[in-house]
Amino acid sequence: MGGKRTVSAFVPPTLPADVQPADPEEISELQEALDGHRRALAESRVKLSETSDRLEAERRARTEAEELIASAQRAKSAYAAQIEDLTAQVTELRAAHQQRYDRERVQPRRIASAAREAIVERAQSPAPLNEVQARKKIDAMLRKSGWLIQSKAEANPRAGQGVAIEEFTLATGRADYVLYVDGKIVGVIEAKREGTALSGALAQNERYAAGVLKEHAMAVWRRDEPFAFRYASTGAETYFLNRVDPHARSREVFSFHRPETIAAWMKRADEEPDVPTFRAALRTSMPLLETHGLRMAQVDAITGLEGSLATDRPRALIQMATGAGKTFTAVTETYRLLRHAGARRVLFLVDRNNLGRQAHAEFDKYRTPDENRKLTDLYNVDMLGRSGLQDTSAVVISTIQRMYALLKGEELQDGQDGDEPEPKETPGEAPAAQEGAPPANASNLDETYTADEPITVEYNADVPIESFDVIVIDECHRSIYGLWRGVLDYFDAHLVGLTATPTRQTQGFFDHNMVAQYTYEQAVADGVNVDFDIVRLNTTIREDGGAKIEKGTTVRIPLPPGVRVADATPLCRQEAFAEAPPPGRSSVTGPVLS
Q1: pLDDT band at 101; cut points 50, 70, 90
Q2: What is the pLDDT of residue 275?
Q3: Which residues contact 542 (CB under 8 A, 6 or more apart)?
Q4: Which residues contact 432 (CB under 8 A, 6 or more apart)?
Q5: How far is CA 285 from the centre of its chain?
Q6: Which pLDDT does position 1 carry in this prediction?
Q7: CB within 8 A of 245, min separation 6: which ones?
Q8: Cα–Cα distance between 528 and 117 in angstroms, integer?
Q9: What is the pLDDT of residue 4?
């Protein structure tokens, strides 16, 4: 066919006249079938995706497992080599140890006497107390401290000022002892066998505090703190926690406090709720220091000490050069503690009689910075004497040996340690005693306390552990060690050490809490002390080979200035021997110390 065809318009075909309309039911069935196929397709796709992910995860896990196995094989090889190395070293050490053992078995090495005594002491020490034995010892400690002990069945809180009731029932358990003072529940004691950590026992007391039964609720002194005074003890070791203190910290004590002491604490807490305890007053009641009349070293010492006391550090050490005013610093701080912190009594402890007299003279001439009055007009400052501790004494001055005698219950004599003047000889009058013998009115401490081992003390009801709030220890590098340390461990008080030359042992005893340091060099630089020069002399004795003293010869050694043989304490005698002049020095005659 040739030519062109042109379409001018689209003409749809005509529907057949005999077409029937579709059946709705058939269409619905087809639609459901279609939806079913679609769901099957979607599920197939999901399963295919999960299968692919699982296969990928298995592949990654297999790879990681192979890497771990390889790493373990490498570590095993390294450890095997290390074990082989260590085995060789152990073999060498065993061989060396066996050789040393064989040598020492044939010729044993000598053991130092101190180490041998320590071994013997450990071997002879008794077995630790069990809880039943600890309870018996705690009972004895309570009775010595003035407490009545009663069973729960025979309880009578009004039988005395202080009553300790055993096996007291609480909602949270059974307390070993509950303490009543003036009919009020004030404290609790938890008894443990010796060797038990007492920190856990104090935590057990905390659990008791929330469990006072309703029948005893009216007898509680403080509803918010039923057991304000808490103890934990093994009979050999006792810890105390005073919950009246806003910042309470547990501390070790020698024994239990007396009921009258706890009653006084309760009275203060009721009357002064803002500063309920002495330790609280140390934090909040100390005013700014009046620095007029004080050297900067003294200001630093007092400020540092009060900062330590405010944080309840039990021990503090002040290093101050000789002649820089240690005693005046101690007197100033003592006045501030008495006046502003409410300290009941302060002990000034020395180890020589002349130092005690010097300290008393310093207290006697001290004038208060606020009222310009003599301190001794406001507070009683006493030397420890025949009458022992006086309730009226605010400051007690004593040698550590005399305090030990007081704790031992021995009768003290006035005189050298007291306020009486030393006896003087009159012309033409025979001496009261031979040279080197103690005067008739002096205590016999020199002859009595010359033991070769540290002293031990027992509880003395006339001198309870709470007798002093603060103890100032003069020349503490001499006093706190050797025979007399037990005296310091007896009292529940803050310890303040004064020294010009602290040793390592001294710093360790005071927990390395040196609150102020003023050395001799600083004192010289400030013009407080004067420097010195050393003069060396050569003598014929030194140049010709020295001198010899035959065994058994009595050597005359000078005592410190102002100290007589009768006044010299054992420590003073030891120091006199230690300071004997070397050969080549001119001989000095003096009293004979034998």
Answers
A1: confident
A2: 93
A3: 583, 584
A4: 423, 425, 439, 440
A5: 24
A6: 52
A7: 276, 277, 279, 280
A8: 47
A9: 65
Residues 6+ apart with CB under 8 A from 160: 147, 148, 259
* CA–CA dist 382, 390 (Å, integer): 9
Residue at 417: amino acid letter: D
Closest to 324 in 3D by CA, of 478, 532, 501: 501
For CA atoms 29, 30, 35, 40, the dihedral sign is positive
The three-state secondary structure class of 81 is helix
Enter the tokens of residue 469: 């709030």
Residue closest to 356 by CA, chosen among 414, 431, 306:
414
pLDDT of residue 41: 84
Contacts for 144 with CB less than 8 Å, ≥ 6 apart: 255, 459, 461
Task: For tokens 């703190």, name the residue.
Answer: 225
Q: Of the ranges 125-129, 215-219, 357-361, 455-459, which one carries the lowest mean pLDDT score? A: 125-129
Q: What are the sequence ranges of the domains in the chain?
A: 131-276, 279-419+450-525, 533-594
**Residue 561: both structure tokens together:** 């200035």
What stretches of 154-295 show up as alpha helix (H) in DSSP?
198-209, 259-271, 278-284
The dihedral over CA atoms of 582, 586, 591, 592, expressed in degrees to the nearest 10, equals: 50
CA distances from 496 to 90, 316, 474 (A): 52, 5, 9
d(CA 197, CA 420): 50
- Please state which CATH number belongs to domain 131-276: 3.90.1570.30
Token pair in block for residue 303: 């400020």
Residues 256 and 142: beta-carbon distance below 8 Å: yes
Kindly write down the DSSP assignment for every residue of 99-151, as one continuous string.
Answer: HHHHHHHHSPPPPPHHHHHHHHHHHHSPPPP-HHHHHHHHHHHHHHTT-EEE-
List the beta bridge partners of residue 518. 320
Question: Token digits for 515?
Answer: 């609150």
Give the C-alpha separation, 491 to 536, whole Å: 47
Question: Could you tell me where the DSSP H helices lie in 145-258?
Answer: 198-209
Q: Return the structure tokens found at 466.
A: 């709470």
DSSP classification of residue 501? S
Angle at 426 between CA 421 and CA 428, to 5 degrees: 160
Residue 60: Cβ-neighbour burial (10 angstroms; 0-12, 13-18, 19+): exposed
Render pLDDT for 271-285 as a digit per residue (tens, 0 to 9): 999 999 999 999 999
The structural architecture, per CATH, of the domain 279-419+450-525 is 3-Layer(aba) Sandwich (3.40)
Is the pLDDT assigned to residue 6 strictly greater than 50? yes
Calpha distance 288→178 (Å, rounded)? 42
What pTM does this model have?
0.68
Cβ–Cβ under 8 Å, residues 470 and 493: yes
Long-range own/partner contacts, residues 388-391 (CB < 8 A, 24 or more apart): 388/412, 388/462, 388/463, 389/345, 389/462, 389/463, 389/467
The two domains 131-276 and 279-419+450-525 share their CATH topology (first three levels equal): no
